[in-house]
Structure formats: C-alpha cells, structure tokens
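for the writeup, i need someone to sanity check this before i put it in the appendix. the sequnce is what the collaborator sent (i think, or maybe the updated version? ugh). structure was predicted straight from it, no edits. if anything looks off just tell me and ill rerun, i have time this weekend
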Amino acid sequence: MRRMRKIGAVLYLIAAVVVTGLFTGSQFGPYTERFNALLAVPGVRVLAVACVCVVLVQMLVLLTAVIADRPEPAFLRLASDAPIEVALPALISIARTAAVRDDVLIEETEAHVRGRDRSEVHIEIEAIALGGGELAAIGQDMQVRVQRACERMLGVPGVSVRVRFLPSKTVTVTREVC
C-alpha cells in the first residue's frame, strides 16, 4: 500500500506541476503566445485535461479523507460495562509504573484505543536497557507486568503491549581545529 501511495503522490505532483505550468504560462509572462499555440495541439490538450482530472481526483480523495477522519478516542470503554470510560493518561501512568525496572530507563509510553467498540487498548513502550542483559527476556518481562497491571486495573482483558528498546549508546565525534 505504501508503494501505491508513493506512486499516487508522485503522479499527483507531476500533474499539478503540468497544470500550474500550462496555466501560468498561458496567462502570464512573455511567452503566452507560445503556450497558447502549444495548447492548440490536440495531444497537449489531452495531456492537460488528463492532468486536471488527476488533480481533481486527488483533491476529492483528500476532501473525503478530511471529512471521514475521526479523531483518536481519548477514553477506553470497558467491554464488561460500556458506560464506564477510562482515560488514556491513567493507562499510560499505570503502564509506566508497571514497566519500571532497575536496569531499564523508560523513554516514552503511548496508548492507542482500538476495536470497534473502543474496548481494547494497545500500549507502546520505548525503553533504553542500561544493563547488558538479554533484551528479549527483559522486554517480555516488562510486557507481562504491564499487561497484568492494566488488566487488573480495568478488570477485563483487552490490553496488548509492545516494548521497543532504543540504542543505549550514542557516539559523539569531536574534532579540534587549530
């Protein structure tokens, strides 16, 4: 799908440049007569109409996406009791607290509501391992602890956790100039 989006974006940009160039060239500047003569050629006219259609279709797609886009919900509804809502910052706080370890630094914690009825949550934790331990075991331990803590707080299952470790060392290059 990404490749199709890239192809569509490139096609849109090329069509927009052609339409803008032909319009401005035929209306403004010292070469308006040449652009008008170029637009009198049937092949160029077909190209211009095709480019205008591509630009219009893209504008329609973007307008539909803007109208149909719903903001991400800020509350999780419990599957067992729909009127009760839990705020995402509360879940983030619980996840951050449950993920704390002596050999791990929690960099960022995010939560996203999922599911048609907004009864599931996906928590992403970015951490930096300070020790030289096995990252897979540390990550799995953190994942289990966060999942248990959130499910204990909510009272129902529906929490998925992803732990990602960031690089623990950065290299700084310094140079002296004499």
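The longest strand covers residues 104-114. The chain has five helices and five strands.
thx in advance!!
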